[in-house]
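Title: [Solved] Chemotaxis protein CheW 3D structure

Original question kept below for reference.
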Amino acid sequence: MISELNLQQQKGVKQFLTFIMADEEYGVDILTVQEIRSWEEITVLPNAPEFVKGVINLRGTIVPIIDLRLRFGLPSIEYGPLTVVIVVKIEFEHDSKIIGITVDAVSEVYSISEQDAKAVPSISETNNDDYVAGLVNVGEKMVALIDLQKTMNI
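Solution (posted by the thread starter after getting help):
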């Protein structure tokens, strides 16, 4: 019996967890998501980059918390009741890392065909578009699909 996940992978369809930041919607591959947590107090690390808010102890694992707004150069906001931490596991060439990313709010889970994703147009000489793997239309809105490896390669 073929599972639904295998069938989706054969068709080139992936599921993405989407979230809101600065009134825009972004998505990450749902297979990278370990859990979604509400905002909690963290331990601040001295001399860390501004976007590294600190660390939390997640069942014995020390997890760095990255403010994705600051990582993307968006204005900082005060954390509120909708602020969440999406804990993701990112596979790098030689190892994997568990990282928490703060976002304004979680939105939806979408099944998106990889062939529907469009390339990000290059509009400047800076590499800010490196964080976005592609753009996809979902209904009336556009969702930016995040390349977590590039975004979290600090």
